[in-house]
Amino acid sequence: MTHTADSVWTMTGKQQLQALAKPFPQSLIERAPGGFGDYVKWSVKVEKLLATVGAFDWHIVREITDPDGTITGCVGRLTVEVDGRTVTVEGAGDVERPDIMRSNGTRLKHAESDAIGRAATKLGLGLHLWSQDRYRLDRALDRNEAGDE
After folding, report:
1. Residue 79's domain spans which residues?
2. Cβ-based neighbour number of residue 19 at 10 Å
3. CB 29 within 8 A of CB 38
4. What is the pLDDT of residue 33?
5. What is the pLDDT of residue 147?
6. Element at 82 (helix H, strand E)
7. Would you list the DSSP string of 133-146?
8. What are the residues whose beta carbons fall under 8 Å from the beta carbon of 48, sequence distance 6 or more?
9. Which DSSP letter does residue 37 get?
């Protein structure tokens, strides 16, 4: 299903949740540099959020720091309207190798990218990357929608 700005406002029933749960195409999935699993860039996740639910609220709830003040992570809060229901989820993000980054600003940017991705996963977006071959949410939602008609 392709989503345009106009289609966001005309989705009914569980269409937005179904769209969020739909796996990303293989062409957008990359192998993590450290070798741990596959991922989709944060910008691609944000594009899908915007295309599916429209504007959303996001803010950093808390920065996580080492005793010396070095930012090593953050917790963010994402609020969206999905299929007529306002939903708020939180996600924690970390900074891989904070010692090689020059500033807390850069570290926070990396942690925020990770945090919004984790929060969005709680809405089904990108969840297939974690569940891998056990992923069933998209098919379960399709069956539920068919049963509702």
Report:
1. 5-148
2. 24
3. yes
4. 73
5. 57
6. strand 71-82
7. GG--HHHHHHHHHH
8. 19, 20, 24, 125
9. S
CB 90 within 8 A of CB 80: no
* CATH value at residue 51: 3.30.390
Contact 101, 110 (CB under 8 A): yes
- Indicate the pTM of the whole model: 0.84
Distance CA 35, CA 140 (A): 30
Which element (helix H / strand E) includes 51?
A: helix 42-53
DSSP label at residue 73: E
Q: Rounded to an integer, what distance in angstroms lies between the CA atom of residue 72 and that of residue 104?
A: 9
Q: How confident is the model at residue 39 (pLDDT cuts 50, 70, 90)?
A: confident
What residues contact residue 122 under an 8 Å CB cut-off, 6+ apart? Answer: 89, 91
Number of folded domains that form the chain: 1
DSSP 13: T
